[in-house]
Specification:
19 helices, homodimer, globular, alpha/beta, two-stranded antiparallel ribbon
């Protein structure tokens, strides 16, 4: 029986830090096969991915991941708790033996203790959160404040004020919630700088930094060459050569404008997370904004954080209605979309296939459910960010193409 | 008391044929002032106008029209009967003494007789239309066939199989429907060729032909110079110089794609004229279409004519919902948007102002009603067809700008 390791990733794009994490996690777990559940074309912070999920899946496979499956949009673009729940559920369903995530400390005990403590004191914790939310701060800020104020918390508790710890916390919590038998552990993240990665010493920078360089620098790919594995670099070059541009929010701004000017406040309130009349602010500011960046700046408040608004804009863009998104608040994913596999991954898939209860979807045209319908809308929308001469081809490929094999 | 002449126009763009009609109508009516009710940014055939309503209003004023008022979107983009009804109602409300429209024959009697005959035999006529519609042909085709088959029609009846006669018929019919005291007459249209226009002999071509040359030729404006008055030519040059491009459906195709891929068949059925499941065909074909032109070609059938589909696409684009559009099927316009005036026009406006019962809206920010809300959505959408650096300025101008004065 092969031992399988599960990773929860966005790979936007796959860089040296990801490679380091992948290698450390493999070593630590002694796993024979690595399964990554990866966000599709829209990411947790409510952004379109730099390059498509296919390109990103290929980069992951070439770097040593064996199976890449898609985290459905309805989970991928949610707050940390549901993002984590969806991802952990899929890895559980894929019969993973262990999940390893990155953290500042590299120690799992504080996460386990914090989760157990807050599960025992759930009611009190939630009351504290609500109390802080009412003062007008954002939910994440309220949660971290609640945690700081709740009495009797364990000394070794993990610091939930740090965003990076929040996801880890929710991975552990989701395992408990699912009564999962999966083992969970963490490896220490590396900061920016030079580290032993791959076959030598490579420079590590964050994905955010890499994207920033690509869009704000003179857009020269060579500037990020030393920050990513050669396979990623090749993938980015190929994408740029084929499509001429990387994807970001600015490329979808016209569509957002159109939606906001033609939909009434009432109609917009059907969109998931469009609450408390925020759509009036959006409709107002869109008429004055020259870019997506300046638009979000003008709408942002203490309560409506950048990420929350960006996610809302993504839902407006993809027309993510409440029904399907709320379903992800209550239920587990209902199918598993396979994006790519190595030979090793395929061998493993054959051994677990019979035990996986959800449909494993290789080609889209043969299967659909509510979450997948939402994924199709999201992907079809994502494709609009490419130059228009590619639209029909990319739409067709999304339906017809089998998973990537390397 | 000044005698006022009303014209119902689109001026897309104002050309020598329009000038000829304007001059003939002025001569025939001996009017002191000319009021044009003009479609706004979207036209009766369901197309965005070549240049904005402001540019077109200016061209009209410079050619001799005294007052230009806007036909609201909810009437302007409807079938001939409601288009005519909205326009005639506005001219009636503006206290016009006479309406003159262009026709092949230049004789008003056949129109009057046909209208009277069909109003007397309305029930039978409608039954014939329904019978023909059921065979799967379009409504206009069915109406013209019904007219051909109805017994006892007067010998001198106007030929309702000719599209140009349909509008004239409905102008007359709307006058009857409104119990209006306005006189109505027609002047003969001139075909293509050279005619006495303005101060010399000018070449006349259709607006369709002119637009075709602008988009399909090498786009050189000089090719149409002899087909339009110098004032129009100057206006087109100015527009091209400022914005670089004229507006047509292809410039909105991306927005149509986005709407069709992100809205479910159910959601699309809320759009006006989205009936009989046509949205399934639209959703299907959009994924395969490289241009608006080829999209409409692929969706068109005997029953769904090009114009009907183009209007539907316009309504999808502007999110024209059933409520406001159906209101235009039952009610008259509720306000009059003034787009421009000459000195003579302003003098006239001052004399009639007190008698006009509807609000005359000079600046948008001070007034709104359901029809005008729809106009705002349509104009805001229309502006998206301009290069994006102009959007915020044009949106602002639409709210802030007073009518054009020459």
């Amino acid at each position: 029986m092969m031992k399988s390791l599960g990773l929860i990733v966005e790979y936007n794009p796959f860089h040296n830090g990801h490679l380091y994490h992948l290698q450390q996690a493999k070593k630590q777990s002694q796993a024979d096969v690595v399964i990554a559940v990866m966000s599709g074309n829209f990411l947790q912070r409510g952004e379109p991915a730099l390059v498509s999920k296919w390109t990103r899946a290929k980069m992951a496979l070439e770097a040593g991941v064996d199976l890449v499956v898609e985290l459905p949009y309805a989970f991928a673009t949610q707050r940390a708790d549901r993002f984590a729940f969806g991802a952990v559920s899929i890895l559980d369903e894929m019969k993973c033996d262990e999940i390893i995530f990155g953290s500042e400390s590299g120690k799992i005990e504080p996460f386990l203790k914090t989760v157990d403590f807050l599960r025992e004191n759930e009611k009190e914790y939630n009351e504290w959160i609500q109390r802080h939310v009412k003062t007008g701060i954002s939910y994440p800020a309220a949660a971290s404040k609640a945690f700081a104020t709740i009495p009797n918390r364990p000394d070794e508790a993990v610091d939930l004020a740090k965003p990076n710890n929040i996801l880890g916390y929710h991975y552990v919590n989701s395992i408990r919630e699912n009564d999962s038998k999966m083992h969970i552990d963490t490896v220490q993240r590396t900061g920016a700088g030079y580290h032993e990665v791959g076959h030598g010493t490579d420079k590590i920078a964050s994905a955010t930094g890499i994207r920033k360089t690509l869009f704000e620098g003179n857009g020269k790919l060579s500037e990020i060459e030393e920050l990513v594995p050669p396979t990623t670099y090749k993938g980015l070059i190929k994408h740029q050569h084929e499509f001429g541009q990387f994807l970001n929010w600015e490329g979808y701004f016209e569509f957002l404008k159109h939606r906001l000017i033609t939909f009434s406040a009432d109609e917009l309130s059907e969109v998931y997370e469009c609450v408390e009349g925020i759509q009036h602010r959006l409709k107002d500011q869109i008429l004055r904004s020259e870019s997506f960046q300046s638009f979000l700046e003008s709408v942002k408040t203490k309560r409506y954080t950048w990420t929350r608004l960006q996610r809302l804009c993504t839902h407006i863009l993809t027309n993510a209605n409440k029904e399907v998104m709320n379903k992800a608040l209550r239920e587990q994913p209902t199918s598993i979309r396979l994006l790519g596999m190595s030979e090793n991954g395929q061998k493993h898939l054959n051994t677990i296939k019979k035990k996986v209860e959800l449909p494993i979807v290789s080609t889209l045209s043969k299967y659909s459910d509510d979450f997948m319908e939402m994924d199709i809308k999201a992907t079809n929308t994502y494709i609009l960010g490419f130059p228009s001469r590619f639209h029909t081809t990319l739409w067709k490929q999304e339906y017809a193409n089998p998973p990537i094999r390397i």
